[in-house]
Model the fold of this input.
Amino acid sequence: MLEIQNVSKTFNAGTVNQKTALNGLNLKLNEGDFVTVIGGNGAGKSTMLNAVAGVWPVDEGKILIDGVDVTRLSEHQRAAYIGRVFQDPMTGTAATMQIEENLALAARRGKRRTLRIGITKAEREQYRELLKTLDLGLEDRLTARVGLLSGGQRQALTLLMATMNKPKLLLLDEHTAALDPKTALKVLTLSARIVEENHLTTMMITHNMKDAIKYGNRLIMMHEGHIIYDVAGEEKQKLHVSDLLAKFQIASGGEFANDRMILS
Amino acid sequence: MEIIARLANLPGALPGACAQGLIWGIMAIGVYLTYRILDVADLTVDGSFGTGGAVCVMCLLSGMNVWAALLVAVLAGLATGLVTGLLHTFMGIPAILAGILTQLALYSINLKIMGKANQSINVDKYGLLISLRWVKEFALHNPIIMVILATAVVIGVLYWFFGTELGCGIRATGSNPAMSRAQGINTNFNIVLGLAVSNALVALSGALLSQYQGFADVGMGRGAIVIGLAAVIIGEAVFSRIFHNFALKLASVSIGAIIYYIVIQLVLTLGFDANLLKLLSASVVAVFLAVPYWKGKYFSKPVKKAKEDAKNA
Done:
């Protein structure tokens, strides 16, 4: 479903701040794969997701989604294939617009935007039903501005927006990191349920090793811009946090895992 | 005593102030589209306002029908917005600078359109839509009535447009560009489109003003952005608590422009030096722009915070 072939990206090339974020990255996801991505700070996790989403062009390599070469497509063109949820709850929704308007914008992802009415009556009913599945009471607040919602509510809404068209690829970039533990668990459970129900090919970055083991059918660990550990199926289910920490220390040449990874 | 005698002149000057406010109100609605909806401070307006006036007057002088002249002026305004939009999105120039560049270039272009610094047009010889000569008449061709109708049409069309898929895309672009791109919205296209629509309105306003005052002048748009911002801010200050509907918000901008011109008229009537008017306008807008910032910085409300804490506990 997704193929990343030998992709590299260097930021601030030729300056003192030069940073090679992706270094000959290769990855192939099968249809229906739910991959959790872990790695230390600056390992290239978010950079990989941004490269796939097309936030900026990559320096070299190729990216294919469902067999289509999207390497030269811009961010908004690739959006036809991709649903995204971001770390910052503010990023995924338009705060000054209503809940139903945000959903209507997402419903038209990948379609031509014309002079037809921006949201129809039939859609409203459909959105009401859709919001009921979140169990957050948002179905009664269709015309409320999204800026009035809490971080957790906004992430849940963004998740709904990212998945309502059944994208070929779902990218979750630490989408629960900014939430309190209780809300984070709720959003994470919801994510797993939606992915499961729709058989979405998914990549989820997380700093929580337990979550990385618990969710999905495959786990990859990144270090210095490429993948250093890739495990799936039964072997992945049997993993323990201590295994991952050990792997990480070997891969990084004895360098200790960062505090956030150990604490979580 | 002297002040009272001067104030007695005010009622006679009010119709003119209202008409001017209404005409500039259409320009202010254009400013509202960029400043509030697209979240871009577009300085093209100082130039495109004059372009609208110049094009309209020259078309009329060449014998064109008044409606056709208005249409050509609107298209010229559309083109000016297009230029600023492309300077910003295609050439990567910051929006404010892109607007300044277009505005500067338009000064020359406006001069070239008119052939000299100003062109007058005689209301007796040409079939003008509005003229200040009729501002105190009780008739349909009174400019106040005509411009109210024009404003209503403009607001109606904008209300429809910003409810369409395309219009919603522009609003999303202004609200959150990153989210818009993630939802497949071509933000660059929308910025160009928004700037074009905005400057089309500005040019329409300039075209109406040139008819109203009977001439177009190369300097007629100077400071237009400040008047536009003043109208937006006054409109919001007065009506933001009661007007939530988009059409009413646009109407409040128009009313803001009328209030602005009535206040200016009042100040002038009281004997204020007309040469200092632009200084006064700039000062008033500066203070009003600072108020929300000061409110947040020096007058944060601890009461509300305590409530939230109690809720969270």
Q: What stands out?
A: Chain B has a mean pLDDT of 91. Chain B touches chain A through 22 residues (CB under 8 Å). Residues 86 and 192 of chain B are 7 Å apart (CA to CA).
